[in-house]
Design a protein that fits this description.
By secondary structure, the chain is mostly beta strands. Helices cover 0% and strands 40% of the residues.
Length: 164
Amino acid sequence: MKIDGVYSSTIYILGTQYSEWFPVPEDKSTYVNELVEGKKFQVQTDKKIDGSNDIKWSMGGFPPDESWFTLRTGFLASKYCNNGYTLQGTEGFLQRAGVLTFLKTTTQLQIWFDDVLEVTWVYEDNDENDKCAMRNKLAGLRFKANKDSMIDKVSTHYRYELGN
């Protein structure tokens, strides 16, 4: 971003201060420790989400088989999350490439596409013994789940919210 002849790597979008864009690590099993609970982060895609596992992540700090997240064409899913969240099919990320903004807390996940809020997933547990894995605190993220075939297929770059 150029401001009065000076380049800045800090970007403000809708009042949120972001880092510069970084390429998604070539080794998708590398944790990105800046993508954390309660702070927005953005992911840039190079195509629309149209496969069964176009975005599949593991959250840091927990065993990968208990902390994965998938964004599929029909729904959002994670382990023990009572059948996940059903998408309408009209979400922008199902229509074209763009910028997804995520805000994850221990109770919900919000997703914006090109600055339009499209998803608010309030987690529901399978039962009292099987708590939704999305309730685990996000302490870093990798763009791959626990198997080689379960990798993020559309994300090219990421950036994260700066500040407190």
